[in-house]
């Protein structure tokens, strides 16, 4: 029986292989002709072509026309039907009577979203680094079943944002698990976590930390494991206290990884959208409306859609991301230099 | 007794317990509960009937109230355990309920009606897995369609990603030509352009190509992943050039060198990229949400979001379909988690 199955599998496998062989052979015929014309190095262009074509059409061209797009008005999609308005969209965004109060701006939605995002980024990144650092340090200890525990903290990273959002919507529901636990433990009345401005905001932070901390933990853990063991042994022989070992050995040697994690987390947090959108839809009111959702709704979803304004907002967000990315490149260059030493 | 305790708590190396050891295990066990608990709770909940879902406090396992058929009634009646005034408890079926008083009857003796305060009874529960939560969305709603769309997008995008990224990586690692560095810089540059920044003009490009409301409009913009090109290029750089030179001596064409020599040797890197691509494309949400507005084209993620956003959310179906959406990712997690962890640790890929 087992032999039969193996036999079947190998015949099926060899059939597929034969088919692939055929196809590749057929492709080879015109390509040999091309190689005669273009030369050996010319074939490099052929190999690059499909990828570069997709890049150009779906990344480069949109990137360039985004700037043009942000200088046009109206609700039309195609650029040639849109009317040129110059810097009007940017002027609109920046026209506020009081620069400290988002409600005094004409485009108050943008500034509310930007303010929410700023708060989100600061708190979420701080919490993220704290939690993943603790977890990484713990996973780096000599514990039984380390790879199992590493997998435990990594699990939510793979879940889709929609699944994450729905799982937590279900738990934070009025009749959900959290209220049940609080009821059992303290006898407290059910509370609607996602319809209160403060708790909904806190929920978006908590859920996104839950979903992504495993990723940063892995990077930090790789950094911890790269620290030479003999340093710790030497410290132990000198009778150095644990907290001193942490401050004088672990932290300084982990610093390059910590900086990379910090910048990566910042870049990702600015672009928060998926799981938070499914969790709260930006509500209640606009208390969990973040920048990407603002761009999405201004550009596509709302009745009074204004793609030009959305493009201008996305360019402003992009400018912030460029600054953060430059920071990341500087940080990783420093890390490489440290590694050489 | 104390020797037993010593045996349990003894440590390798003969050291005693430090407070950090306790903190470690508290953190690990707490992490286990917090990380896995929500998904387990979701799965348990997905087997509950709508009545059980709306109950507070909720039960952990899916219970339903037992029902009995009584002569003279068309519908089955719910069964309750009732404490009678004389102190005995019997199982009675509820005939009707007015305010806090229920008219209950004995299923074996339906003539006599007991009037019972509803505080003096509790429902007779039995364990029942509501598998209809899983079957009905597939029969009544379009979830089979969504599932198919998701599979189609994931498989197609992954195949194309592997093909064109490996070709580009081959060109960038095994040839020397002018402008090579420029192309590399362009690819690095696109790493920095996230979807959120270009989604408005990308939408107009995709519409202009006639790909709006088309699954290819979801697939094509995602296939030229800069991370994929990089991963494969780094790996292909380690393949010795002598192999390729030898093949050229034997009059192999460049295409044959690519698919007969370089591709098989790059299989480990291709496997890592394939795993990542499957997870990325299966989980994609924002872009499909923008491109697909016709409901027959929804992927599972978009369909779930739409159903969960409706006014009266049918949670029993949403929960079941969320579990279905989770399955491929769980499979990847169980079997391939190590590859992914290694990929992230070595290249910061996500």
Automatic annotation (TrEMBL), chain B:
The residue ranges of the ABC transmembrane type-1 domain are: 147-336
Q: Which domain of life is it from?
A: Bacteria
**Annotated localization:** Cell membrane
What is the organism field in this record? Answer: Paramesorhizobium deserti
What protein does this entry describe?
ABC transporter permease
- What is an annotated GO biological process for this record, any one? transmembrane transport
Coiled-coil spans are: none
Q: Please indicate if the UniProt record lists Transit peptide as a keyword.
A: no
Which Pfam families does the entry link to?
BPD_transp_1 (PF00528)
Q: How does it sit in the membrane?
A: Multi-pass membrane protein
The family classification in the record reads:
Belongs to the binding-protein-dependent transport system permease family.
What GO CC annotations are associated with the protein?
Answer: plasma membrane
Q: State the UniProt keywords alphabetically.
A: Cell membrane, Membrane, Transmembrane, Transmembrane helix, Transport
Please give the start and end residues of each transmembrane region: 21-44, 146-170, 182-203, 215-236, 257-280, 315-336
């Amino acid at each position: 029986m087992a032999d039969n199955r193996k036999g079947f599998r190998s015949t099926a496998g060899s059939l597929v292989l034969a088919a692939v062989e055929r196809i590749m052979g057929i492709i080879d015929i015109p390509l040999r002709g091309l190689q005669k014309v273009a030369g050996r190095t010319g074939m490099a262009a052929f190999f690059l072509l499909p990828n570069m074509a997709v890049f150009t059409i779906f990344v480069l061209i949109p990137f360039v026309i985004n700037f043009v797009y942000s200088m046009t008005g109206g609700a039309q999609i195609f650029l040639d039907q849109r009317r040129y308005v110059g810097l009007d969209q940017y002027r609109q965004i920046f026209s506020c009577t009081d620069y400290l109060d988002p409600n005094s701006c004409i485009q108050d939605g943008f500034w509310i979203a930007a303010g929410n995002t700023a708060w989100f980024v600061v708190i979420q990144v701080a919490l993220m680094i704290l939690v993943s650092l603790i977890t990484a340090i713990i996973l780096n200890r000599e514990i039984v079943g380390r790879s199992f525990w590493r997998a435990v903290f990594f699990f939510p990273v793979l879940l889709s944002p929609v699944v994450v959002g729905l799982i937590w919507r279900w738990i934070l529901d009025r009749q959900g698990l959290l209220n049940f636990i609080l009821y059992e433990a303290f006898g407290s009345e059910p509370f609607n976590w996602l319809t209160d401005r403060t708790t909904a905001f806190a929920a978006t932070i908590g859920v996104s930390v839950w979903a992504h901390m495993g990723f940063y933990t892995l990077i930090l853990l790789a950094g911890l494991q790269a620290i030479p063991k003999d340093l710790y042994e030497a410290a132990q022989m000198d009778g150095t206290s644990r907290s001193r070992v942490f401050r004088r050995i672990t932290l300084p040697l982990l610093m390059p990884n910590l900086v990379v994690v910090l910048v990566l987390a910042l870049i990702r947090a600015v672009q928060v959208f998926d799981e938070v959108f499914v969790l709260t839809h930006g509500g209640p009111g606009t208390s969990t409306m973040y920048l990407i959702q603002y761009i999405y709704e201004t550009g596509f979803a709302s009745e009074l859609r204004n793609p030009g304004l959305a493009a201008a907002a996305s360019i402003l967000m992009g400018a912030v991301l460029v600054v953060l990315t430059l920071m990341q490149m500087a940080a990783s260059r420093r890390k490489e230099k440290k590694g050489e030493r | 007794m104390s020797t037993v305790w010593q045996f349990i708590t003894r440590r390798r190396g003969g050291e005693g317990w430090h407070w950090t050891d306790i903190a470690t295990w508290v953190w690990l066990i707490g992490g286990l509960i917090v990380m896995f608990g929500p998904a387990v709770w979701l799965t348990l909940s997905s087997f509950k009937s709508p009545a059980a879902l709306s109950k507070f406090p909720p039960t952990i396992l899916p219970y339903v109230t037992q029902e009995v058929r009584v002569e003279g009634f068309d519908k089955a009646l719910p069964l309750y355990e009732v404490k009678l005034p004389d102190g005995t408890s019997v199982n009675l079926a509820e005939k009707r309920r007015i305010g806090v008083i229920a008219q209950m009857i004995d299923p074996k003796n339906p003539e006599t009606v007991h009037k019972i305060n509803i505080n003096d009874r509790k429902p007779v529960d039995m364990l029942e897995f509501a598998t209809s939560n899983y079957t009905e969305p597939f029969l009544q709603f379009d979830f089979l369609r969504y599932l198919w769309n998701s599979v189609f997008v994931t498989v197609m995008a992954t195949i194309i990603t592997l093909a064109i990224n490996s070709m580009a990586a081959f060109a960038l690692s095994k040839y020397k030509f002018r402008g090579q560095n420029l192309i590399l810089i362009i690819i690095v540059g696109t790493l920095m352009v996230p979807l959120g920044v270009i989604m408005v003009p990308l939408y107009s490009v995709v519409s202009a190509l006639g790909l709006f409301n088309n699954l290819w409009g979801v697939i094509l913009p995602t296939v030229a992943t800069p991370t994929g090109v990089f991963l494969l290029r780094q790996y292909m750089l380690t393949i010795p050039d002598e192999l390729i030179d030898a093949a050229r001596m034997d009059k192999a064409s460049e295409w044959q060198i690519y698919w007969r020599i370089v591709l098989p040797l790059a299989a480990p890197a291709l496997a890592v990229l394939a795993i990542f691509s499957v997870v990325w494309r299966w989980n994609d949400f924002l872009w499909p949400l923008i491109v697909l507005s016709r409901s027959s084209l929804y992927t599972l993620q978009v369909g779930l979001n739409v159903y969960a956003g409706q006014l009266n959310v049918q949670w029993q179906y949403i929960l079941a379909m969320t579990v279905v959406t989770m399955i491929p990712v769980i499979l990847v997690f169980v079997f391939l988690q190590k590859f992914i962890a290694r990929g992230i640790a070595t290249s910061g890929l996500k």
